[in-house]
Write a structure and sequence with these properties.
The chain is an alpha/beta fold. The protein is built from eight helices and five strands; from the N terminus they run αβββααββααααα.
Length: 226
């Protein structure tokens, strides 16, 4: 994650250039990486809602599709909101380490530092907020698409032991960032599949916003989307 004020301001500037959504420092989401069936005690906890064994990986990316923060320790049955609730990054936001906010989907609770889309739109301001939110948050979906096309083992699955799979996922994230810095493209002809991945609708169980988060989001909309 960007540490200095200058780094954070540059990250915010790049996100704002997408759809004019201010103060965004990262887009957050989770993606399931398939693993071989775990036969040990607790192996059923790796089975996700789609019925296959996986690791549920949390990622925060920037506007350049680079992975700034990654969590790979959770089994596939764990919900996205719990992973964020128990991660160190949430503690850093609550401690005031960052000057910006995260954007997430409705699978997360709305908090003062993580904004989610509105479900029941009643004003033009809310419609503008949602349109801008969706376009800006879509960077993390595009990040997943590019990352998995670059490293097909993330797309097809990991079939070694679980600890090796976790380390491999992190290694792929580091190499993905290096490839972006070096401007290394994926193979020609694969861009269409990346865009297809990024446009897939993601259905998440709705998580009710916190009272503080709701108030903060309302104030934000009134200030920036009039």
């Amino acid at each position: 994650m960007p540490i200095t004020l200058n780094e954070q301001q540059e990250t915010i500037r790049k996100f704002r250039s997408i759809a004019n959504f201010p103060t965004v420092i990262g887009a957050i989401d989770c993606t399931h990486i398939r693993v071989k069936k775990v036969n040990a005690d607790g192996g059923q906890l790796y089975i996700n809602r789609k019925g296959f064994s996986s690791i549920n990986v949390q990622v925060v990316c920037d506007a350049d599709l680079k992975i700034m923060d990654i969590v790979t320790r959770w089994r596939g049955s764990v919900h996205d909101s719990r992973i964020f609730r128990e991660c160190r990054l949430k503690q850093r936001f609550e401690a005031g380490a960052f000057s910006g906010i995260l954007l997430g989907d409705s699978g997360y609770p709305c908090t003062p530092y993580l904004f989610t889309p509105l479900l029941n739109l009643t004003t033009p301001q809310e419609e503008r907020y949602n349109r801008s939110h969706i376009r800006t948050r879509n960077t993390v979906e595009r990040c997943f698409g590019l990352w998995k096309q670059r490293f097909r083992c993330l797309l097809k699955g990991m079939f070694g032991d679980i600890e090796t799979a976790k380390k491999t996922i992190v290694a792929c994230a580091v190499l993905h960032n290096m490839a972006i810095d070096m401007r290394e493209d994926v193979f020609s002809g694969e861009r269409d599949s990346i865009e297809q991945y990024s446009s897939e609708p993601i259905v998440q169980r709705y998580i009710a916003p916190s009272i503080r988060g709701n108030i903060r989001r309302r104030q934000f909309i009134e200030t920036h989307f009039q």
